[in-house]
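Summary for the funding panel

The consortium committed to producing paired sequence-structure records for every protein in the target list. Below we show the first two records in order, beginning with the earlier of the two.
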Amino acid sequence: MSTKDYYAILGVDRDASAEAIKKAYRRRAMKVHPDVAQDDAGAADKFKELSEAYEVLSDPNKRAIFDRGGDPRHANGAGAGFSGFGGGFAGGFDFTNLVDAMFGTQSGRGGPRSRVRRGQDALVRADLELHEAVFGVTKPIKVDTAVVCPKCTGSGGEPGSEPVTCPTCDGQGEILQIQRSFLGDIRTSQMCPNCRGYGTILPRPCSECSGEGRVRSRRNISVRIPAGVATGNRIHLEAQGEVGPGGGPAGDLYVEINVLPHETFRREGDNLEVVVKLPMTAAALGTTVDLATLEAEWENSAVEDRTVAVEVPAGTQSGTRISIKERGVPKLRGGGRGDLGVTFLVQTPTRLDDHQRDLLRQLAESRDEINPEAIAHKGKGGLLGWLQDRLS
């Protein structure tokens, strides 16, 4: 019968889960490990006792023996305790499990790894004209990614050849190393350097892909861009990215949108903005102008949608903005569209003949504006600054 209370040594309850036991060991081992607690003369003994407790409680069979009052160190004829610890499990102490518990790593024992793995995701950028982003488009995209090797079809070997078992690791993908220390025999495993952990080697690697099972290639795909996308939006295409090593499944492809500037319209969220130049007389008297919309650049639009009649009220000033409902950008999520904002820029004539100049002089005299009083405009940022922002 064991005289040690392994639960008390680890500081866990008797019904503690395997994960709780691992966490308790990791927490305490980091404090009493001889390399950490160098000022503690008894650190080696504490660490040995702690490791012994973890070795028992992390093994379901040994833990069951201990819970029944037996001595798990002598179960099934196992020697006299931890080799090198002054008693314990015969045949040496496998330190791999304790390293895993202390540092949360996988120190080998994973077996050979597969040559077939999922490929990485890929990212490409697509430039769109404004009307393509607003109304949607199916866009051809060129993608440079890895594809399955056409010669070996992903196997990595020359046609007709087969992988052979690695003679260095005997197909395990890892090799075992044993080192002597004050803790006993420490056994660790590392990736086999000959087969790189695969457990097999390719006697005749494919000359086309050098054993990778994939090659670089350019391909063309068609991407459906939904209406209402903006710069920075990404379209997700499943399994259109890089093919994985060994011809493994492809990753995903992300198409990032970049909307090019437009010479007439500017987008602000779901709204479109446009500046319309008006003659001074039209602004003063009022008029109706036919404005070409963005639909005029979209071949699928209805003819009646390609222009809109804009009412200009009499006395319209530069900077006046009116909003035309539902003529902006379709909402990417949800129905409806934004608005079309029309800002007027009133233009003063610069070339006048004598008759026109005389008419304007008569108008100015009738309005007592021959020598008007200069009144400074007051407002946030000033009108000129506001207009510059609108026209930039």
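The next record, for a separate protein in the list, is shown here:
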Amino acid sequence: MFNYRQLHYFYSVAKAGGMVRGAEQLHLTPQTLSGQIAQLEEKLGVALFRRTGRRLELTEAGRLALSYADEIFQVGNELEETLRNRHGERPFLFRVGIADVVPKSIAYRLLAPALGLPEPVRMVCREDKFERLLAELAIHRLDMVLADRPLSPGMDVKGYSHLLGECGLTFFAAPGLATKLEGGFPHLLDSAPLLIPGEDSAIRAPLLRWLRGQNIHPRLVGEFDDGALMKSFGQAGAGVFPAPTAIAAEVAAQYGVVSVGRTEAINERFFLITVERKLSHPAALAVSEAAHQGLFPTRETLHKQP
């Protein structure tokens, strides 16, 4: 039978980042802890850690084991909480994956309505690469994935893409750089230093095609997988950068930058990906409704507004 105490020892060491720190947290000696983990490795037939210099690193099998241990102990904590509060109202779990290219402010504004439901909600957010999140969705470890692209036909995942909304792009620059840009938009981008999203971003290719179509040739000075890092470089004056128009006011206020132009010729889209053809999860429905009425209003919604 599987020894869950040994799994907990492994989990504690992996989370603590070392045998000594793990032993201190568990009030055990490093020798005892090391021996227990060695027994677990022997039973499983794989090495969970490898030593690199003085540091312990997880092997590939160790990373897989850690992901399962995370879920096992999370379920255990939920069981304990439920039994202790069985006479109260139990919050329902809402597990959402967020593709790491989705701007944090958009993710927050899309997901926040789920916390306003009449029923208590416990939200678990996991940020990762799009493909890895889809794998988690496929085995029902996530209820939905928030992404900047739909499922492609070539992906071996059974799921459905629900469009939350779309918006154009606004280009920003630090005030000092903005004063040096010459001409009207978009031609002021020609020869200007430009910061762009990394290869994982769905908007990158359309952005570069649009620039070529306008016969605009900026100086690409930086590519960023992390949108917040790109904005920080833009804030420092390293270059002009794009952001979704839906959060233009927020970007300007947070980073102290100014808009140098915007276009609707490039649309950044955001999707809710689920295993359901029709949304039924209360939190997912709240996210979709709020997106269409607030952050990304549809034409029908706009016509209904006074």
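Regarding this second record: The first strand starts at residue 49 and ends at 52. Residues 293 and 301 are 6 Å apart (CA to CA).
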